[in-house]
Amino acid sequence: MRIVMIGSGYVGLVSGACLADFGHDVVCVDKDAAKIEKLRGGGIPIYEPGLEQLVASNVAAGRLSFETDLSAPVAGADVVFIGVGTPARRGDGHADLSYVHAAAKEIAQALSGFTVIVTKSTVPVGTGDEVERIVREANPDADFAVASNPEFLREGAAIEDFKRPDRIVVGIEDERARAPMEAVYRPLYLNRSPILFTSRRTSELIKYAANAFLAMKITFINEIADLCEKVGADVQDVSRGIGLDNRIGPKFLHAGPGYGGSCFPKDTSALAKTAQDFESPLRLIEATIAINDTRKRAMARKVIAALDGDVRGKRIAVLGLTFKPNTDDMREAPSLSIVQALTDAGARISAYDPEGMELAKPMLPDIDYAASPYAAAEGAAALVIVTEWDAFRALDLKRLKASMASPVLVDLRNVYREEETEAAGFRHVGIGRGTATLRHEMRQAAE
Ligand code: UDX
């Protein structure tokens, strides 16, 4: 298949490279000339494990190339994907579709022969209809069908997610789109990944419903974690205990400082807005959004409480700034609210992140950036783990304790168990570890 991917950002670049790896002929297009220049030179504008090699091998094989102008590639294409950004629109939480609409208009002028135009960006229900209308209006003679094919990949595991998806969802209104879409994903369904054909609007909604459900699942376990702290129970055992029930499933039940990233916050708010517009409000999702926002600030209060209510003038080491490990992405990262609230309370922050510091610096300009977890911890009254990078899983606790002003560990991702940190002389505060708190209090009462 001859495929064009409009937009060489996260989704576009990963999808384009993976489709080329399946053996298709792929041209990735982006208006950003500097980005295309970098890609042509073998550079990768985003951090994603394995992507550089994947791009390089497919470029070398002649299956993947990069262009700034879509005209010639679109004219020769069987399938044109729209993978441009759909950021949250300022003010009202709706998705900003201006890039999608602009791409549709440009594609329309370049079409030649029957072409399937596919929205891969996360777009609100009804966008496929709008794309169809725009293309038809811009080029009344064009022969095309518009399909929806949402992407479910996670940052940090994007290639694996693309190549071994739980399912592929394709929404079509015109039967002529079915065969080309089957051909695009043939290597996957031969591998037994189910391909689900639905109506176009259904497919658009599936993407939002999936992300909203996952955000809700995380938020549920986060609230249960708070309750665990109060009643003396352990949230990790609760997660395991409920997750072993097949109807619930074990994933996305890891309690933490709240979800962040480029998708969950944006998509939950866009879905809630759509639901309000159609007078069918999604109250569970509205509550999820509100709870998650409050939670990030509550995490700073947890740190302050661990330092007996006062952090003024104290140094606090923050380990992990990105919204999750294996990415340099800082969008909606819980660290942003936590660091801000701690700074407001008078603390001085030293932060370390394996990949996120360059992007963090302009967002958090008033803190110190350290070269290692140990450098961050020097003189600190507390060490706070905000993101569970593997590099933080086997820290030398004795070495940390020796250089800190007071040995307090606030582990917002439950990377450590209190037995080991307490054995190393730390005061340990985890998430939803009420069992440990209870034992600690009982020990203190006995003493
Ligand atoms: C998500 C979806 O998983 C993916 O299918 C969709 O295409 C895009 O949005 P991503 O944002 O890359 O992917 O990250 P994900 O791994 O889902 O994590 C999102 C946030 O939830 C992170 O802040 C993470 O720390 C948090 N999270 C996740 C938890 O707090 N607990 C969990 O159990 C899982």
Automatic annotation (TrEMBL):
InterPro entries the UniProt entry points to: 6-PGluconate_DH-like_C_sf, NAD(P)-bd_dom_sf, UDP-Glc/GDP-Man, UDP-Glc/GDP-Man_DH_C, UDP-Glc/GDP-Man_DH_C_sf, UDP-Glc/GDP-Man_DH_dimer, UDP-Glc/GDP-Man_DH_N, UDPglc_DH_bac
Q: Which reaction does it catalyse?
A: UDP-alpha-D-glucose + 2 NAD(+) + H2O = UDP-alpha-D-glucuronate + 2 NADH + 3 H(+)
Read off the SUPFAM superfamilies from this record: 6-phosphogluconate dehydrogenase C-terminal domain-like, NAD(P)-binding Rossmann-fold domains, UDP-glucose/GDP-mannose dehydrogenase C-terminal domain
Q: Which Gene3D superfamilies does the UniProt record give? A: Cytochrome c1, transmembrane anchor, C-terminal, NAD(P)-binding Rossmann-like Domain
Q: Which organism is it from?
A: Stakelama saccharophila
Q: Which residues form a coiled coil?
A: none
Q: What class of enzyme is it?
A: oxidoreductase
NCBIfam families this protein is in? Answer: NDP-sugDHase
Q: What is its EC number?
A: 1.1.1.22
Q: Which residues does the UniProt record annotate as the domain UDP-glucose/GDP-mannose dehydrogenase C-terminal?
A: 317-418
Alphabetical UniProt keywords: NAD, Oxidoreductase
Query: What is the protein's given name?
Result: UDP-glucose 6-dehydrogenase
- This protein's pathway: Nucleotide-sugar biosynthesis; UDP-alpha-D-glucuronate biosynthesis; UDP-alpha-D-glucuronate from UDP-alpha-D-glucose: step 1/1
Give one Pfam family.
Answer: UDPG_MGDP_dh_N
Family statement? Belongs to the UDP-glucose/GDP-mannose dehydrogenase family.
What PROSITE patterns would the database entry show? PROKAR_LIPOPROTEIN
Q: Name one GO molecular function term.
A: oxidoreductase activity
